[in-house]
Amino acid sequence: MNVTVIGTGYVGLVTGACLADAGNNVFCLDLDERKIARLNAGEIPIFEPGLEPIVKRNEHAGRLRFSTDVPASVAHAELQLIAVGTPPGEDGSADLQHVIAAARAIGRYMEGYKVIVTKSTVPVGTADKVKHAVIDEQKKRHLGNDFTVVSNPEFLKEGAAVEDFMKPDRASSTRRSRETASASS
Ligand SMILES: NC(=O)c1ccc[n+]([C@@H]2O[C@H](COP(=O)([O-])OP(=O)(O)OC[C@H]3O[C@@H](n4cnc5c(N)ncnc54)[C@H](O)[C@@H]3O)[C@@H](O)[C@H]2O)c1
Prior knowledge:
The protein is of the alpha/beta class. The chain has one domain: NAD(P)-binding Rossmann-like Domain (Rossmann fold, 3-Layer(aba) Sandwich), CATH 3.40.50.720. The chain contains 8 helices and 6 strands, in the order E-H-E-H-H-E-H-E-H-E-H-E-H-H. It has helices spanning 10-21, 33-40, 51-60, 70-76, 97-109, 126-140, 161-166, 169-184, and strands spanning 2-6, 25-29, 64-67, 79-82, 114-118, 147-151. Helix 1 crosses helix 3 (51-60) and helix 5 (97-109) runs parallel beside helix 6 (126-140). The site of nicotinamide-adenine-dinucleotide (NAD) has 25 residues, from helix 1 and helix 5.
């Protein structure tokens, strides 16, 4: 399926590359032109074991691309994953300005139904803020396309991010407990 990843930092790049490796057609967006230029020149801006061959393989296969084109990123996929930074403010709370900016961009350009997934680390109540940001932008266009906001926080660890993504411990432990449950019933 088509997937857009908004924010091609640590989480966005690993997520985008691994989703492409699973066969999806992934558009990685970032507003940092230098970062996108480096990626398009074949450079991996972070060191993460196992990541480089995955990026290269999937770029070569045409399943992974990097761009600063916001309208194209919104048009690319029904599934929009927000993986932008949420740096802690002075009081330690997450700064949501990039998450809300990403949501506004979706609302500004969306032409049909979207599933908007927050992968960034955000506090409870952020889904409502994302929803209102999208609605606000749609109102300016006198539009009211349907959309769904989903929370899917990321728990990968730097240095083991590819491994964490490909073999998620929480998902496999759920599977194990189901197997255990059916084996014991
Ligand atoms: N790095 C980790 O180990 C880790 C682990 C789990 C969760 N997280 C969470 O995931 C989120 C992302 O973290 P990260 O380490 O990948 O951040 P990062 O700073 O490496 O990357 C964020 C990227 O988003 C881009 N960006 C900002 N606003 C944008 C916008 N409106 N549109 C497009 N791109 C935009 C930035 O240019 C940057 O490249 C944060 O909420 C973080 O707390 C990080």
